[in-house]
């Protein structure tokens, strides 16, 4: 993956994303659509997983067949909305290890502060995929990736559903080595930090909170 940002413009992804954006889409449908889209995004973000060959026997003959190589990859959910992407991704990559990063924003400094951090071991030998549906200001994503690098991660990708240009610029500046996979780059952030046109608060929409 050489480009810094990959937009997954598959028609099924774009159709499902439109349904998710609609104000009147129910919590249950929103959740199901996120699960479905997460699988397309997971397919794209894992395109360059390392491969090896192993010798197998088909019912017809022996062959050298492709197989995944190296350590199991690590999916890291940035709480809480990242959890909405996990289930679908784990259906596709059932043996992935899973970690969680919890950050809140300090009201005085406006900086992200860690309140939870639990990640798989030997991160330095794994492909690490940090997931958060919304890349808005980029502050929490950049902070989460700072923490993952401090924990040893070297091969990190960032997967989101929607991105704002501001968030992409912030990530590119702070972590130019971390490719981003998303379903859309929207117009801009509004004064409250929401992505425009966006889909509202992803956590609230998937968990049915306000
Ligand atoms: N987080 C969200 O859930 N939605 C936005 O639009 C921006 C950040």
TrEMBL record:
Domain Phosphoribosyltransferase spans what residues?
Answer: 8-209
An example Gene Ontology molecular-function term: uracil phosphoribosyltransferase activity
Q: Which residues bind 5-phospho-alpha-D-ribose 1-diphosphate?
A: 80, 105, 132-140, 201
Pathway annotation from the record: Pyrimidine metabolism; UMP biosynthesis via salvage pathway; UMP from uracil: step 1/1
Q: Which InterPro entries match?
A: PRTase-like (IPR029057), PRTase_dom (IPR000836), Upp_B (IPR034332), UPRT (IPR005765), UPRTase/APRTase (IPR050054)
- What does the record say about activity regulation? Allosterically activated by GTP.
| Gene Ontology BP, a term | uracil salvage
**Catalysed reactions, semicolon-separated:** UMP + diphosphate = 5-phospho-alpha-D-ribose 1-diphosphate + uracil
Return the cofactor note field: Binds 1 Mg(2+) ion per subunit. The magnesium is bound as Mg-PRPP.
Q: Family per UniProt? A: Belongs to the UPRTase family.
What is the stated purpose of this protein? Catalyzes the conversion of uracil and 5-phospho-alpha-D-ribose 1-diphosphate (PRPP) to UMP and diphosphate.
Kindly provide the name given to this protein in its UniProt entry: Uracil phosphoribosyltransferase
Q: Which organism is it from?
A: Litoreibacter roseus
From the broadest rank down, the organism's phylogenetic lineage runs: Bacteria, Pseudomonadati, Pseudomonadota, Alphaproteobacteria, Rhodobacterales
Encoding gene, per UniProt annotation:
upp
């Amino acid at each position: 993956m050489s480009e810094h940002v990959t937009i997954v413009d598959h028609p099924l992804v774009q159709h499902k994303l439109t349904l998710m954006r609609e104000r009147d889409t129910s919590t249950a449908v929103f959740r199901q659509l996120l699960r479905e889209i997460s699988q397309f995004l997971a397919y794209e973000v894992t395109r360059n997983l390392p491969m090896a060959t192993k010798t197998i026997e088909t019912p017809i003959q022996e062959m050298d067949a492709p197989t995944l190589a190296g350590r199991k990859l690590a999916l890291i959910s940035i709480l809480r909305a990242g959890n909405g992407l996990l289930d679908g991704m784990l259906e596709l990559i059932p043996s992935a290890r899973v970690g969680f990063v919890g950050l809140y924003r300090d009201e005085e400094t406006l900086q992200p502060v860690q309140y939870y951090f639990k990640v798989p071991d030997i991160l330095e030998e794994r492909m690490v995929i940090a997931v958060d549906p919304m890349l808005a200001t980029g502050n929490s994503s950049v902070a989460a990736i700072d923490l993952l690098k401090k924990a040893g991660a070297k091969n990190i990708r960032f997967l989101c559903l929607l991105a704002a240009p501001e968030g992409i610029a912030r990530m590119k500046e702070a972590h130019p080595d971390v490719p981003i996979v998303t379903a859309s780059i929207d117009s801009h952030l509004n004064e409250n930090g929401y992505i425009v046109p966006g889909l509202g608060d992803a956590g609230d929409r998937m968990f049915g909170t306000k």
